[in-house]
């Protein structure tokens, strides 16, 4: 994506928040629901008459206050707050049982919104207790695993939908480690979880590229589910809380970002518009409508080959974590 394309997208006038009862009789589950575009999406959804709104978060107590405020405004809103930590695979694996305990046997809309940006500083890899690099696990592995582990609930819906929150930064991400892995016959998963080759400054964009690769392939592997990867655009959220505010960033980077960033509410419109109106799967959704990824690499022969190889690796990876979880995927 060129600089001017990015600026043009950021300043595109977005349509208003979807109106009406488009979530009537639907159960909606969203991760990372207590801040940023996740919280703003929840506010939008509360106007759309969901039968149940499930907020999957790490910080339960602050989310309870948020839900209470929403229910004071929407007295018929039924909400659930369930603990979920994407940096703990045991938390993901335990989630279905928690849903059953609460009498939930169906999910109509799953929104994989939670993610992290480790910032722009040069720092070493942080490895989770599950043995994965933290950004890779949070932004790539866990959303994939979480979606597959909830397939039995999604299959109870007449029109199931999965939303993945991506980023336009996938278009400019450095593909070198992916391509080198393919050329040398190495595992892409292992390369991205190797401490020695870790690059903190580049990992966020790369993680969103890897997610885009997964969701593209997942669309063909789950034809009965509407799958959409949504880019909220650059928005003012807590996602940048780990940024290193060096003098150069304060002088050049921060003013540029603040000048061109959307509000979290406007970023959330991309998510809610996809939930309300996407009638089929789209590998990219931007500016509140079906769009296209400007990553020429993804559409190239090398990118297509790498996407298939990486998806196969990830299928094997999650099957090791939760045996049998991939049986619902088609070839």
Please explain how this structure is put together.
Helices cover 47% and strands 11% of the residues. The chain is an alpha/beta fold and 331 residues long. Helix 2 (36-45) packs across helix 11 (264-277). The mean pLDDT is 90.
Q: Strands across the major sheet, in which order?
A: 3-2-1-4-5-6-7-8
Binned strand content: 5-15%
CATH fold-level topology = Rossmann fold
The helix count comes to: 13
H and E string? HEHEHEHEHHEHHHEHHEEHH
Say how many strands there are: 8
Largest sheet: 8 strands, mixed
Broad structural category: alpha/beta
- Summarize model confidence as the mean pLDDT: 90
CATH architecture: 3-Layer(aba) Sandwich
Low-confidence stretches: none
CATH H-level name... which superfamily?
NAD(P)-binding Rossmann-like Domain
Distance between the termini: 31 Å
Shape: globular
Condensed summary:
The protein is α/β, with parallel strands linked by helices and 331 residues long. The protein has helices at 3-10, 36-45, 60-73, 89-101, 134-149, 151-154, 176-184, 188-192, 200-221, 247-260, 264-277, 296-299, 301-321, and strands spanning 27-31, 52-57, 79-83, 109-112, 161-165, 226-231, 282-286, 289-290.
Q: Can you lay out the helices and strands and say which pair or pack?
A:
Layout: H1 3-10, E1 27-31, H2 36-45, E2 52-57, H3 60-73, E3 79-83, H4 89-101, E4 109-112, H5 134-149, H6 151-154, E5 161-165, H7 176-184, H8 188-192, H9 200-221, E6 226-231, H10 247-260, H11 264-277, E7 282-286, E8 289-290, H12 296-299, H13 301-321
Parallel strand pairs: 1-2, 1-4, 2-3, 4-5, 5-6, 6-7
Antiparallel strand pairs: 7-8
Helix pairs in contact: 2-11, 4-5, 5-9, 9-13
Keywords: Oxidoreductase
Pfam family, one: adh_short
InterPro entries: NAD(P)-bd_dom_sf (IPR036291), SDR_fam (IPR002347)
